[in-house]
Design brief:
430 residues; alpha/beta; eight-stranded mixed β-sheet; 14 helices; 8 strands
């Protein structure tokens, strides 16, 4: 006879309620993101109609074993639609064991705008350390950050700078990143869909609703003076970008999301690489939550407080709710337990699934990627890729509890960009 108890009924109701709250919140952000898309497009037209004042920019690239990609990135940066005499490029080589330093030096010999900074030591110090070291070598107050595998669109920095100049309260302006290898396999297709959803729903939606957005790891500009006021990047932070975002808001500055500025980057092509990367991200956000938890109620911005609540809910409450619902569903199907709550729960699940698909398809349409293939991948993504996140979060929590040390340069495996990828960049543009 199946086991039944009031506690099981309560747990089931809680899991359904929490899951739906998160889905409805995501839908609210999707609507806000749509409104922001319209708003930022109109704002960009105003900027383009006015005369822009070009200011000096230091482009910084933290690099560790980037021999496969660094030359292409430097080539892209050297062809930006920005006055060449106002650009310097600082490459921070953090103990690379490949040809990174030699490639950068050869480019520097031909182009004096490119500076090579070799950090001492035989083992890498990490991205945050490299950024702090490179910052001291940057000559200008506006600093642009790019990962070493990036292929920015020619107008990427020009767009970011133009928005920074319009608002003195801004400390930084961030652009959008796209997946250059999205057609490689099923994993890169999922990642491509995920990154578009993250940026148009969370980044754009949050900025429209609350003027809060979080620095990514690449394609953004930031004021050197604000970084110095913050004390630089936290070298203990795994996700140094999200950590410093909190301190920027604490100082009273703002960060703006401008998705019209685009860079293309490489994403994991192997599941093991993806799991390692995403686990690192979750551990990084766990560090941020732990570091700032005592100060949460003292945040000047109530919206930043809400962001912390959301992050906590996403990684803990939502995770628990999903696992609970899965376990209760399986045990109920096997006749092990019986739930004594009447209701159209199958309909509730189907409507949640359809709402998820709707949100993603709307976002895909923004990038002209709402093809039948991508819609089919979105459907399967719900049952596969999204469920993998449960494993990733549990793994990250386990590693944190065991105080497992993370590698300082645990990054995506690099590869040569194929001609087909280059053609796709030209085809999709922004």
């Amino acid at each position: 006879m199946p086991f039944s108890h009031t506690i099981l009924d309560i747990l089931f109701l809680l899991s359904v309620s929490i899951t739906w709250l998160m889905i409805v919140y995501q839908f609210f952000l999707m609507v806000a993101g749509y409104r922001y898309r319209t708003k930022i497009t109109a704002e960009q037209r105003e900027i383009e109609a006015s005369e822009m004042k070009f200011v000096p920019v230091s482009v910084m690239i933290p690099a560790h074993n980037e021999g496969l990609v660094i030359e292409r990135t430097l080539d892209r940066l050297s062809k930006l639609d920005y006055p060449s005499h106002l650009i310097e490029i600082v490459v921070v080589n953090d103990a690379s064991s490949d040809q990174t330093a030699q490639i950068v030096q050869q480019r520097s010999d031909k182009d004096p705008r490119i500076k090579l900074l070799n950090l001492p030591g035989k083992s890498g110090h990490g991205k945050a350390y490299a950024l702090n070291a490179g910052l001291r070598e940057c000559s200008h107050d506006i600093v642009a950050i790019y990962d070493a595998d990036n292929n920015p669109q020619p107008d990427s920095i020009q767009i970011l700078v133009s928005h920074l100049q319009r608002d003195d309260s801004l400390a930084a302006v961030i652009g959008k990143f796209r997946t250059i290898n999205r057609s490689k396999n099923w994993l890169t297709r999922f990642i491509n869909i995920e990154t578009m959803a993250f940026q148009w729903i969370l980044q754009a939606g949050r900025f429209q609703a609350s003027k809060v957005t979080i620095l990514p790891g690449t394609n953004y500009i930031i004021k050197k003076s604000v970084l110095e006021e913050c004390g630089g990047w936290d070298e203990k932070a795994i996700t140094e970008d999200s950590e410093i975002s909190v301190r920027i808001y604490q100082l009273g500055y703002k960060i703006k999301f401008v998705p019209l500025s685009v860079t293309w980057e490489q994403e994991p092509e192997k599941l093991s690489t993806w799991i390692r990367q995403r686990t690192r991200w979750v551990r990084g956000n766990n560090y941020v939550l732990k570091k700032f938890a005592p100060e949460t109620l003292k945040f000047k911005s109530k919206f930043l407080f809400m962001e912390f609540i959301y992050l906590f809910a996403l990684y803990y409450l939502f995770l628990i709710a999903i696992v609970l619902s899965h376990v209760l569903f399986i045990m109920s199907s096997l006749g092990i337990v019986a739930l004594n709550i009447a209701g159209p729960y199958f309909g509730v699940w189907v409507s949640a699934f359809l709402l998820f698909v709707l949100e993603i398809v709307v976002v895909l349409s923004y990038e002209r990627e709402d093809s039948l293939t991508n819609i089919i991948f979105t459907v399967f993504m719900y049952f596969t890729y999204c469920q993998l996140w449960l494993y990733v979060v549990f793994k990250a929590l386990s590693m944190d509890m065991r105080r497992y040390k993370v590698g300082v340069w645990d990054k995506t495996e690099r590869f040569h960009v194929l001609e087909t990828s280059e053609q796709e960049i030209s085809r999709f543009g922004k």
